[in-house]
Amino acid sequence: MLEKSSIQNLDNSDYRLKIFEEYKRLEKVNWKRVGYKYEEPETFKEFNNLEVKNENQDGVVIKNINDSLQELESLKNDNDYGLGDFFKKQNFAFYNEGKYLKIKERKTVEKPIYLNYRANKENNFLVDYNVIEVEDFAKVTVIITYDSEDNTPVYHNGIIKVFTGRNAEVKIIKIQTLNTSSSNFESSKIETLGQGKTQYYSVELGGKINAISHKSYLEEDSAEVYVWPAYLADEDRKLDLEYSVVFRGRRTIGELQGRGAVKDTAKKVFRGNLYFKQGSSKSEGREGEFAILLNDKIKADSIPTLFCSEDDVIGEHAASVGKVDESKLFYLMSRGLSEGRAKKLIVESSFRPIMDNIDDEKLREKLFEELERRI
């Protein structure tokens, strides 16, 4: 159990202790659809295996999250996000890593900035809080990875917040390949201002338990956001994934396009939500999830929803969940491929719209190798 004594001597302890008192009164969260009852980690540990790359570029400021309290206070607002109070307050009380990344106004950052979290036997408890602020007319790509260096089960509770300024261009690539004995809980939020553009690519290949909640806000006129999640659910893994886009400005564009594969005895729930608020006229929203089922009797739910409080908008949603296309399978096998190899090619082709946008060739190759091994 996470105890008060673990945080009494940490930085920002007064704030942590106050949040802890609120946290301990909250009920633990359960996910009924995937059949998972939450288990709290046994103890708090420090995390000392974060690698930051390409931070020394013009216009880039990176600080430890503990040294950024003033900046975080200035970015606070009432926009809801995440897995709920239980996980957010756990994060605020027990965070042991995280960065505040700022890109200054009108700066174009040429090389992607990396935050690489590597878990192992000594670093198997990670509660991280990451904030990315991109000022007006700036441009950047940020790649955040979570990976395991050994087979030690990992507990991860992460928060990612992205603030995209006016006319800014931001690409966020998040790759999670923790070992399949791990628990992975993540809350993320994107806020995009007028004529800003944010692309968010989220790849979930690891973890035995995965609960993800993401929310993007199109705050002002002509803002754009594109959310592309990808996942693999295999063995007896459990995934509960929720992605939402909220339209507030006029003439905004929001897209949510999920890609995934499910096999063995895994259970998966994917929720996609579009919210058109009053004042979002002339906006366009599209959502879809395309899941390939590689075995019979698989538990896989897809729940696309659309909520509209404004006239004169375009909203589209779709879900496609089914077995491998038999005609494609027959065509590939007629060209000499085995059934297993043909299925792998079909799944890989479904993932390509997301993988091809990862700005790192070695990382792309590693992900395709992981898919090749497990499909």
UniProtKB/TrEMBL annotation:
GO terms for biological process: iron-sulfur cluster assembly. InterPro entries: Fe-S_cluster_assembly_SufBD (IPR055346), SUF_FeS_clus_asmbl_SufBD_core (IPR000825), SUF_FeS_clus_asmbl_SufBD_sf (IPR037284), SUF_FeS_clus_asmbl_SufD (IPR011542). SUPFAM superfamilies: Stabilizer of iron transporter SufD (SSF101960). Residues 118-348 form the SUF system FeS cluster assembly SufBD core domain. Pfam families: SUFBD_core. This is Fe-S cluster assembly protein SufD. The lineage of its organism: Bacteria, Fusobacteriati, Fusobacteriota, Fusobacteriia, Fusobacteriales. The gene is sufD.
